[in-house]
Design goal:
The protein is of the alpha/beta class. It folds into four domains: 202 residues, 2-Layer Sandwich (Beta-Lactamase), CATH 3.30.450.40; 84 residues, no CATH class; 174 residues, P-loop containing nucleotide triphosphate hydrolases (Rossmann fold), CATH 3.40.50.300; 133 residues, Helicase, Ruva Protein, domain 3, CATH 1.10.8. The chain is built from 22 helices and 20 strands. A hairpin with a 4-residue loop joins strand 1 and strand 2. Helix 1 crosses helix 2, helix 4 packs antiparallel against helix 7 and helix 21 packs across helix 22. The longest helix is centred in the first third of the chain and has 26 residues.
Length: 641
């Protein structure tokens, strides 16, 4: 087989006809790497790394956007992480500012850590750098990379556009798996594309929070956004809208909505809370459907946006009450009753539950109904941030405290949350040496930033959450018992979606939120499938599946096959996506859910074998509790022996 470097050089010299693909990718990028950047397509010497100071500066420049982005990164990882991918977020220069990954996985590459610079000019053809250069969704599968060192990796990057259509960053997924199937990678690309679309929409709506938002749906199910004022003048349009409606890419000036559509002021009459179905007709008679959102700031401080029972928060723009969070589930309603009785005591709250059950939504709802509601709500994900940065992010640091520190220093999350609520997500992943310092702060109420002798008193309501069994972590010596008892002023256990008794209420609320505004409905058989499915990804997965089905449905009715949830009667023995033996075409599962289940089953068996049958060790490697692993064994029909 031709050496990779020689293949790249031959392709650039001879043109894209020598490549095994029909279009010009990756030829255009390879050509730039050689002719414009002067790179050689052999081994890559090193991926550049910026300093801690530069990482912090990059984050500070994106601070408002990162408030939305961290939740979406976590959500995306909860889906693609189970098949080996890590998720990264970069700025417009390709500097990685956030990473979500299982660093113990054999599919992980440490080149993805925060501070890595993935610009095309430095790293050759890759998901981040090439998507930023081309301003387009970019998949780089194995030997489509420029450098030899990366041909076992597959990645997909999506550029992130600001409301003014400038690129502010990229959302990327990467896995180092030489036996990854292309079709599996293509499924993952669609997931990251939808995540980027949701993130850009949240930022656009926040930017135009005092304007009415029109969300128009294209034929492929993707959305484009317009912001209009009270006189029906278009004052903002996202990239998709500018492409669809042939609007200027820059130098945007307000103009009348009726320049684009037949005049119909009644069509965009908004409601105070819910999205309302919308249909506008272009001057050629073709319709564009979607829905209209009222201005966020017109709702007033005392008005809470109604959200169907059981719906997880989608972003900072959503205000969910404790009752809406609990739905009709008795155990969750009991938890809400306990929290309301204790909300004036300031006792710390510890929330336990699987990924995707709504722990963060509960924290925000509790803050919103507490006496601290008018004060800041500050969150820190202890698993999404490198260990070296957690301490400075949490406790702050003085100017010049360490190499790369900002000269003005940083207040830290405790000080930022003074008077309000500090939410410590994934507390079970906090490094042991930081647990000791956290305990001292909780006991004394005093914070001393790194490199400073100045002590600051803080008054915060602490809410911690984890999907791990802390009792087991304590027994293993990975979590301090005294910190557990300090955090567990009140312990709230959130049931998984499959354990909830109000499943019909939750599913119907999801349908009302995601399907009915589009003028669609769910067939009875499809609804039954939603009720019967076990939902390992909980509420997050439910909303993703139903939202995806609205795009896949051929007409106005979502049928069972649109959900992509059917599981074969017998699980195949040989997985195809995690690098063991490929499954023949006739045995290959046809649905996304079946493929993910197959991949998860293979990963579980692989880890148990690697750990010589030690279930606790295998669970740690897989990033789940031992109880969760036992449930997954049962779900996959695997004997504990």
């Amino acid at each position: 087989m031709m050496d990779h470097g020689r293949k790249v050089l031959a392709a650039v010299r001879s043109g894209p006809s020598v490549l095994p693909v029909a279009d010009s990718f990756p030829y255009r990028s390879w050509s730039r790497c050689i002719e414009e950047y002067g790179l050689e397509p052999g081994p890559c010497s090193v991926i550049p790394q910026v300093s801690h100071r530069e990482i912090n500066d990059a984050r500070a420049a994106l601070e408002e956007k990162l408030n939305f982005a961290y939740d979406e990164v976590d959500f995306l990882y909860s889906i693609v992480g189970r098949i080996g991918y890590c998720v990264t977020l970069t700025n417009a220069e390709g500097v990685t500012v956030s990473e979500r990954a299982d660093r113990s996985s054999r599919y992980y590459s440490d080149t993805e850590r925060p501070g890595s610079v993935w610009s095309e000019r430095l790293a050759g053809t890759n998901g981040v750098g090439t998507c930023l250069r081309d301003a387009a969704v970019t998949s780089v599968y194995k030997d489509e990379h420029f450098f030899q060192d990366f041909i076992e990796m597959s990645c997909a990057g999506v550029p992130l556009f600001a409301p003014d259509c400038s690129i502010w960053g990229a959302l990327n997924i990467t896995v180092r798996n030489p036996k990854l199937q292309r079709e599996t990678h293509e499924i993952a690309i669609e997931v990251v594309r939808k995540s980027a679309e949701r993130l850009s929409e949240a930022i656009f709506r926040r930017s135009f929070r005092d304007r009415t938002i029109l969300k128009l749906l294209r034929h492929d199910g993707s959305a484009c956004l317009l912001a209009i004022d009270a006189d029906h003048a278009v004052v903002g349009a996202d990239v998709a809208a500018r492409q669809l409606l042939s609007l200027p890419k820059c130098d945007f000036s307000p103009f009348s909505l009726w320049r684009l559509f037949n005049r119909d002021p009644g069509a965009i009459r908004e409601q105070a809370s819910h999205a309302r179905p919308l249909e506008l007709r272009r001057h050629d008679g073709s319709p564009l459907r979607g829905y209209v959102y009222a201005p966020l700031e017109d709702r007033g401080p005392a008005r809470i946006r109604p959200v169907p029972a059981g719906r997880p928060a989608a972003g900072a723009a959503d205000n969910v009450t404790l009752d809406q969070w609990a739905g009709a589930e008795p155990r969750m309603k009991r938890s809400v009753d306990i929290l309301r009785r204790l909300k004036r005591t300031g006792l710390p709250v510890l929330v336990l539950g699987e990924t995707g059950v709504g722990k963060d939504t509960l924290a925000r709802a509790y803050h919103g109904e507490s006496p601290r509601a008018a004060q800041p709500f500050v969150a820190l994900n202890c698993a999404a941030m490198p260990e070296t940065l957690i301490e400075s992010e949490l406790f702050g640091y003085a100017g010049g405290a360490f190499t790369g520190a900002r000269k003005e220093g940083s207040a830290g999350r405790f000080v930022q949350a003074h008077g309000g609520t500090l939410f410590l997500d994934e507390i079970g992943d906090m490094p042991p040496h930081l647990q000791t310092r956290l305990l001292r702060v909780l006991e004394s109420g005093e914070v001393a930033p790194l490199g400073s002798g100045k002590i600051q008193r803080v008054d915060v309501q602490v809410i911690a959450a984890t999907n791990q069994k802390l009792e087991q972590r304590i027994a293993q010596g990975a979590f301090r018992a005294d910190l557990y008892y300090r955090l567990a002023g009140v312990v709230i256990e959130v049931p998984s979606l499959r354990e909830r008794s109000d499943m019909e209420t939750v599913v119907d609320a999801c349908i009302a939120r995601t399907v009915e505004p589009l003028g669609m409905r769910v067939a009875p058989a499809a609804r039954r499938m939603l009720l019967d499915y076990r939902w390992p990804g909980n509420l997050r997965e439910l909303y993703l599946v139903v939202s995806r089905a609205t795009s896949l449905a051929d007409g106005k009715v979502i049928e069972p096959h649109d959900l992509l949830l059917s599981v074969p009667a017998a699980q195949p023995e040989a997985p195809y996506a995690m690098g063991l033996a490929p499954v023949s075409a006739e045995r290959r599962p046809t649905s996304v859910r079946a493929r993910v289940d197959e991949v998860e089953r293979a990963a579980i068996l692989d880890n148990i074998a690697a750990c010589r049958g030690d279930i606790a060790a295998a669970a740690r490697n897989l990033g789940m509790s031992r109880a969760t692993l036992y449930r997954r064994l049962k779900a996959h029909g695997i004997s504990r022996r």
